[in-house]
Structures
1.
Amino acid sequence: MKKPSSTTRDSIYEVGYGKPPKANQFRRGRTGNPRGKRQGEENTISAFKRIVSKRVKINDGEKVRTITLAEAVILKNCNAAVQKDPFAMSNIFRLAEDAGEFVDFTDAKQVGRSIAVPEKAKTIEEFLAEFGRSPETE
């Protein structure tokens, strides 16, 4: 590597972590990934959605039904859970919990307050008492 000349000593550029030499930096107006992501290339989430939305045929007793792969996996887990498979049971309970099946909608602590019904209006005395004040001091 060349030593900086006397004309460039004024503008000494510190080379280090995250600061590559000027000669190796990307040129202005150019991207570091010129080809980029190929058009139509799918990411993991879209690939997953495409796969689980495929329709498969299953034997349901005497009938042959066509359901999505995701439904087939859930059905298989349910059948295995009935057969006392602990892993399948935990999968089913996790799915039910994520779907909100274990929330008691009659318990206000689990559900929260209703949005449409306002709380009881407070008097000025109750409001000031919350902050340790009285109407006489105001």
2.
Amino acid sequence: MDQLCALAGELLTNIRAEGTPEDARRVFEHIMNSSDLGLVVVAESKGTLCGYAYASYVWRAEFGGETMEIVALFVSPHWRGKGVGRNLIASLLENARNRGICRVRAEVHPGNSTIERTLDSSGFDPERRTLWGLRL
């Protein structure tokens, strides 16, 4: 869990998020304690985490049932370009198929062409929607 939270901390810093590694720990523990909320998958080599992906499950009438939202995908710099991200996506997609999920989507931060290429090579198509948010 410590390695996972350290990787999450790197991602949170990269995207200039307000969250902390401790916030990530609470989220991961919550998700890992209820398989109906989502899924965290990791890639490792010789006991060291190379990357992780985190997805949540959402029921959406517009898509006719349960969907998967890929919330985060992060690969350590040393492991980038070696198929780790693609393998993490493949693991999420396998889980989605096994659950009978009808749609998987991912939000990408502007300018992140690496994840865009990974999603494209995994069969995703870009959607043109405007995201709105309200901080409470």
3.
Amino acid sequence: MQDIPERHKEVLVIGIFKDRQVYIELRPQCPKCKKEFMLDLKKFLPGRAHSCYACGTIAQFDGQLAERVQKLMHDLEASIREVNESFLSQKAD
């Protein structure tokens, strides 16, 4: 297994397709106290911020990055729906 650089070990991604929507959760660390927190990518929106539950530090989300992530999430959900529909449209032998 490939070694993961230390600076990337704090991010854990969990993906689930439930109720026709993708759920991806990141677990980054607070920039100040380094406590891990959960971030649902659906809530990673332009102009929003996250407040650390441990120290109260407020981390602003990068607007352009948040827009890009939301577009990718939308595109991924649409592609997964297409895959599901392609199976449903096939005739059984």
